[in-house]
């Protein structure tokens, strides 16, 4: 049965973590932060695609946590035609992933409401509204989107006698991974460390309490982490094949 109040509980605010060095994307990141790298053929940096997606999913306010070459990202934001309200924050000293997330969350306009978060190098499209409803239904404090990335190698299938029966090009992983997109309840920010990595502290604690949920990205939805130059090339090829 559909919950008539679900829409009112869905987040309208989000944090984008955009402070990474992006060393594996050099030389693209020599003069710009990783989220400012353009996917070839799109004319828009990764973060531009993210902001459009967030707005399409009902988000009205975004806090962007900047670091490496923050001024380049801030300058682009000042001149871009943005579909939502954006605030930037810059860490004056390294706080770690958990500390950086806590610092950015402190600048959200609605501290008493749930919020989304995403890593600044994720290029994806799926229903955040469905993910938010999944989060609420499970009474979770934090929900992680889960992806099954394609392996960079071909795979083989064998029968019980060790005979190879088939070859599979770049199959999806049999394991789900943290896709870098999240839904957090209001109380989650207070659980984050002032410094350090929440994935080693806060997440394991919530998992033990069964308050950490995992939302599988629906089959057929696009997801890719842009970590290397090869990822840029692959993303451009995949998007062209989809007619985007």
From TrEMBL:
Domain Nucleotidyl transferase: 14-240
Pfam annotation, one family: NTP_transferase
UniProt-listed SUPFAM superfamilies: Nucleotide-diphospho-sugar transferases
Domain of life: Bacteria
InterPro entries on file: Mannose-1P_guanyltransferase, NTP_transferase_dom, Nucleotide-diphossugar_trans
Name of the featured protein: NDP-sugar synthase
Organism encoding this protein: Streptomyces viridiviolaceus
């Amino acid at each position: 049965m559909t919950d008539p109040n679900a829409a009112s509980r869905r987040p309208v605010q989000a944090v984008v973590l955009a402070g990474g060095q992006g060393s594996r994307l050099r030389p693209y990141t020599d003069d710009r932060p990783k989220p400012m790298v353009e996917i070839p053929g799109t004319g828009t940096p990764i973060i531009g695609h993210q902001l459009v997606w967030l707005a399409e999913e009902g988000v009205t306010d975004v806090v962007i946590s900047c670091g490496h070459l923050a001024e380049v990202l801030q300058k682009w934001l000042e001149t871009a035609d943005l579909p939502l309200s954006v605030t930037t924050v810059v860490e004056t000293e390294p706080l770690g992933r958990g500390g950086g997330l806590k610092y950015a969350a402190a600048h959200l306009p609605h501290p008493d409401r749930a919020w989304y978060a995403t890593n600044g190098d994720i290029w994806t499209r799926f229903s955040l509204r469905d993910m938010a409803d999944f989060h609420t239904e499970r009474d979770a404090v934090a929900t992680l989107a889960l992806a099954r990335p394609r392996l960079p190698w071909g795979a083989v299938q064998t029968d019980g006698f060790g005979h190879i029966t088939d070859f599979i090009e770049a199959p999806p992983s049999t394991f789900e991974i943290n896709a870098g997109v999240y839904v957090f309840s209001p109380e989650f920010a207070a659980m984050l460390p002032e410094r350090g990595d929440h994935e080693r502290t806060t997440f394991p604690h919530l998992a033990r309490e069964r308050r950490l949920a995992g939302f599988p990205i629906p089959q057929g939805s696009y997801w890719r982490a842009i970590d290397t130059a090869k990822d840029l090339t692959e993303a451009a090829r995949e998007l062209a094949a989809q007619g985007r």
